[in-house]
Design a protein that fits this description.
Oligomer: single chain
Strand order of the largest sheet: 2-5-8-11-13-15-16
Strand content: 15-25%
Radius of gyration: 17 Å
Number of helices: 4
Helix content: 25-40%
Length: about 190
């Protein structure tokens, strides 16, 4: 019964958000830019409490590449890239900043987690140009299913299934399944039994 009630609430939230979602798609016909999603994200992240969680899920399920209707997207979570996939059962804690990524099923993100779009977003090899003018490349980072990313972790590389990323860890290299990593740069401190 609880699952049915939640499905009904998520459906109502999607309907309630339909005017904002429609406005987004109208602007998107002209602008077609990640900055548009970022702007809407900044507006929607300010809605507090459970109401905000449901309304954000109602919006992002239609505007991101994929977003499960039961995803929990907390207060002050910002999305910077439309090419983002959020699977079922995902919890994204308050004040996270999410770039181009896939977040696997039943993964938990603590508060203040930043998932960057890879580690090549800024080129800095040409000393005659400001870094802001040198461009860069965005990569889609994958976070595996059943993983837990601790508060304040910075993710620039892929994280496998059933991993634990310690609070404050800086992940710059891919993390294998069933790993616990910590530090800056993050290193494997333990492997979980399968």
């Amino acid at each position: 019964m609880k699952i049915l009630i939640k499905k009904i609430i998520f459906t109502i939230a999607a309907v309630a958000m339909s005017p904002i979602t429609l406005l987004y798609f109208i602007f998107n016909m002209v602008l077609k830019d990640d900055a548009l999603l970022s702007g809407f994200s900044q507006f929607l992240c300010l809605i507090p409490g459970k109401l905000g969680v449901y309304l954000r899920a109602g919006f992002y399920r239609f505007t991101l590449t994929a977003c499960a209707p039961d995803a929990v997207i907390s207060f002050l979570v910002l999305f910077s890239q439309r090419d983002t996939q959020i699977e079922s059962g995902v919890y994204i804690g308050p004040q996270c900043n999410i770039g181009k990524c896939i977040i696997g099923q039943d993964t938990l993100l603590g508060s203040g987690v930043h998932i960057m779009s890879g580690k090549g977003q800024h080129n800095f090899s040409d000393l005659s140009k400001p870094i802001k003018d040198q461009g860069g490349s965005f990569e889609k980072v994958t976070i595996g299913s059943g993983s837990w990313l601790g508060n304040g972790s910075l993710i620039m590389a892929n994280v496998g299934d059933h991993c634990v990323i310690a609070a404050g860890a800086v992940v710059i290299n891919d993390v294998d399944d069933y790993s616990i990593v910590a530090g800056n740069p993050a290193k494997v401190i333990k492997t979980l039994d399968k």
